[in-house]
Amino acid sequence: MNMEWISLGSVFVGSLIVSALLVPLMIRLAFRYGVLDHPGYHKTHQNVHPLLGGGAIYVTFMLIILTGIMLLALSSAGQFPGLTEAQRYLAKQFPVFLAAVPRLLGLLIGGTLIFVLGLVDDIRGVGFSYKVKFVIQGIAAVVLVVSGTRLDFLLHPVLNGIVTILWVVGITNAFNLLDNMDGLSSGVAAIICLILGILTIQQGQYFSALMLLTLAGSTLGFLIYNFHPSKIFMGDAGSLFIGYTIAALTVSSSYVTTRSISQLPVVIPILVLGVPLFDTFSVMVIRWREKRPLFVGDNSHFSHRLLKLGMSTRQAVIFIYLVTLCVGISAILIPDLHILGSILVLIQEALIFGLISLLMVKGHRLHLLHRAVKQDLEKIQSMRSDNGTMAVK
User: Fold this and answer.
1) Per the count of CB atoms within 10 A, which of 80, 113, 178, 241 is most buried?
2) Which residues, including other chains, have CB under 8 Å from residue 58's CB and lie 6 or more apart?
3) Would the annotation count 2 as a binding residue?
4) Where do the TM regions start and end (predicted)?
C-alpha cells in the first residue's frame, strides 16, 4: 500500500474516531449551558436534545487539517529521521500545499465565520433573521472568492465570482434545510463527501480528497449519536458548516479531465448534491404555491412526505441515503463517458427525482385523505356524544 492511500485512510479513520470521542463531551456541555432544542411546532422529536453536535464536527475537521499542516511543515524541515519513506512523501507534497495555502485559509476563515453564525443562533435559541444570515453567508462566500476559490468555466471572472457566491450560499442553506430528521443531514453529507472524495482521488486532487475524507469521517463520527433515536443534534452550527465546506470543496475541485470528451463533467457537483438541492427546491415551491413564508420551517420536506406515505423515521432516512448513493454513483461515471453516455446519466437522474416527486405528491394526498377521514370520525363521535347527552336529559 503506497503512502497516498495510507494518508487518506488515516485522516478518514482519525477524524471518525476524534469526532466520536468529542460528541459525548458536547452532550455534557450542551446540558450544562442550556444549549438545547425543545419539541414543538413542526419538529418531529418528542424530547429535549442537546444542540452542540456541530461543535464536534467543526473541532474535528479543524484539528485534523491543522495537524496535517504541521506534519507537512515538519517533514519539509527533515524532522522525521526514522520515517524516511513518510518524510519523503510528505516533503514531496509540501510545494503543492504552499500553492494551495491562500485557498485553504479562505476555507478555514469562511468556515469558522459560518460555524460561529450557527453557534450563536443555537445558543440564543431565537434564530437570526434570514436577511442577517444571508449577509453573513455572503461575506463568507466572498472570502472564498477573494482567496482564489471560484468557478472558472464561465466567460468573465466577475460572472464566475457571482455564481460561486450564489452556489456557496445556496448549498450552505440546503444542508441547513435538510437537517430536519435524525441522521438525515449528517448521513447524506457523509455519503456526498465519500463520493466526491472518490472522484478527486481518481483525478489526482490529493488535498481536496484529504479534506473531503476528513469531513466524511467527522460527520460519520457524529452520526453514531445522531441516527434515530438520536442523542444529540448538530444544530445550525453543524449543518451550515457542513454545507459551506462541501460547497467550497466542490468549487475548488476540477471534474473535467484530459480524458473528458466534453465539458459536461462540470455538472457533477449538481448531480452528487441532487438530494439537498431537490429538497430545497421542492420545499420552496410548496411554500410559494401555498402562500406560506419561504424561510419559516414546516413539514413539507422530502423526508416528511415519506413519513406521510407510512414510512418510519429510520426507513425514510435510509431511503434518502439510497437515493443519494444512486445519483452519486452515477455521477462518478461521467468524467470517462462520451457525450451520449453523459446525457443518458443526466436523464436517469432526472427520472429518479421525477419518481420521487410522484411519491411526494402521493404522500401529501394520502395525508390529506387520512386527515379528512379523521375529522369526519371525530365529528361523528361528537354527534353521538351529544345525542347521548340529550337522551339522558
Assistant:
1) 241
2) 111, 115, 237, 238, 241
3) no
4) 6-31, 51-74, 94-120, 132-151, 157-177, 184-201, 207-225, 237-258, 264-286, 316-334, 340-361
Structure-block grid coordinates of residue 209 = 480528497
b/e code 347-372 from CB counts within 10 Å (16+ = b): eebeebbeebeebbeebbeebeeeee
Q: Which residues contact 241 (CB under 8 A, 6 or more apart)?
A: 54, 57, 58, 61, 111, 114, 115, 118
Block residue for cell numbers 473535467:
256
**Sign (positive/negative) of CA torsion 37, 41, 42, 46?**
positive
Greatest Cα pair distance, the chain, in angstroms, is: 98
pLDDT by residue for the chain (393 residues), tens only, comes to: 577 788 889 999 999 999 999 999 999 999 999 999 887 665 666 678 999 999 999 999 999 999 988 877 776 666 555 555 655 666 666 677 777 889 999 999 999 999 999 999 999 877 788 899 999 999 999 999 999 999 888 888 899 999 999 999 999 999 999 999 999 999 999 999 999 999 999 888 888 999 999 999 999 999 999 999 999 999 999 999 999 999 999 999 888 776 666 678 888 999 999 999 999 999 999 888 888 888 888 888 889 888 888 899 999 999 999 999 999 998 888 888 888 888 888 899 899 999 888 887 877 677 677 777 777 777 777 776 666 555 555
- 176 annotated among ligand-binding-site residues: yes
The burial of 100, by beta-carbon neighbours within 10 Å (0-12 exposed, 13-18 middle, 19 or more buried), is given as middle
316-341 residues labelled b (16+ CB within 10 A) or e (exposed): bbbbbbebbbebbebbbebbebeeee
